[in-house]
Design a protein that fits this description.
single chain
């Protein structure tokens, strides 16, 4: 009678550990908290104005 009870607690403990490990690995965004974001986005240069020339 004690074996199924111990087995049930072992399965619950395994499920809780699996859940906590997967949340710790996938749910953490520690990189978002940094003050330095790494490479800032590069803004494109505006296109140069075309020079209009009169026909000869």
């Amino acid at each position: 009678m004690n074996l199924p009870l111990i087995l049930r607690y072992a399965l619950r403990l395994g499920a809780a550990l699996t859940l906590s490990v997967s949340l710790a690995a996938c749910g953490s965004d520690k990189d978002d908290d940094k003050a330095d974001p790494g490479n800032p986005p590069v803004t494109p240069q505006p296109p140069a104005k075309p020079e209009l020339r009169c026909a000869p």
